[in-house]
Write the structure tokens for this entry.
Amino acid sequence: SQQGEEDPQALSIQEGENATMNCSYKTSINNLQWYRQNSGRGLVHLILIRSNEREKHSGRLRVTLDTSKKSSSLLITASRAADTASYFCATADIDSGGGADGLTFGKGTHLIIQP
Amino acid sequence: DTEVTQTPKHLVMGMTNKKSLKCEQHMGHRAMYWYKQKAKKPPELMFVYSYEKLSINESVPSRFSPECPNSSLLNLHLHALQPEDSALYLCASSRRGDRFEQYFGPGTRLTVT
């Protein structure tokens, strides 16, 4: 079942600008991850933030997590045309059985970077 | 090697056909997943294998039958599918548990006629 709600659903910006996407979720989580998908192909993992972390950086990516509001944001700085893709947040629920439980994806944000 | 491979890339099948999707990884991951993604929608979890045993079946119809012959391979057997089953089928693997990122294959785009 879908859990996350991304906001906005679509975003178009000029190359060089920053892009911010938001995600909300409903359950208690172990971690929250962001993935990128180009043209309906496989997903690429971008960054993972654990429930006890508030902010994480990776290159031009900055992710925040607010567990009290059950929300996260992904910031891409200095955007490039190659960043054009769909971006999904995905949550891993708190492990209740010691096994792998899969991810629940949000609806996604389609980002277009105008050259 | 951080690659997950899936074959075939595209598949067209009739509603009476039997076909199989294959997924392979050589990263030593002991958790493998099948997701289904409809156009302009997020991926939805179908099955999870942990240590080659089926641990999660998200109420998937029996016309989809997963199989994990060994720790590197994951199959999805298809039989008597419906047109609404047309979608992108994604395989993923990870180190065991939800605490790790998943590595996705490029997917198999399935069309049921």
Q: What stands out?
A: The longest strand of chain B covers residues 18-25. The two ends of chain B are 36 Å apart (CA to CA).
